[in-house]
Amino acid sequence: MKQGALKYKKNAKPVPREIAIRSAILNEVISKKPDSFTKYALFGVFFLIIALLVIAWFVPYPESFTLSGRIKGSSNTKTFVGGQDSFAVNEHTYYVECLIPQRYYTKATVGLPVRIRFEAFPYTEFGFITGSLAFISSLPADNGFPAIVILPKEAVTSQHKILQYKAGLKTELILITKNRRFLEHIFKKKLAVQ
Prior knowledge:
single chain; 6-stranded antiparallel barrel; elongated
């Protein structure tokens, strides 16, 4: 043996007995071949994880924010002016006036899909109607930026029920800013934390 190796052995501290026992037990467990039940259980867990990841890829998770508003109807053409922008609502058209809070102003853009729920028609029973954000004023009001959501001509809900618009009905508007997948949402949060 080399002299350096002897020197190392003289100065080396003895391995504690419990670590040596644990190492022996660990070596025994690792060296054993797993039985068939363990193999199938591990395969099942692996398959379940892969299946959940595939399902999470197809599950939609839209980013959205919620507003409130009221239905209005126009018997003649009505023009909205907000700064340099203007928007005309045709006659016999129903629309919802709402205010977009300042914190959401940069996320809201004209053309966004809007899910409209009516206070008079419970969402769980009747569903929602999909409209679109047609106008956002560039001049803020007291509590936000005035906006117009145009309602479709036929009031057919997601539950295939036909409703009748009435001016003054209270609505809950869900503006969908991004259509993403649930898996994308999870990874975005994980990357943001790091």
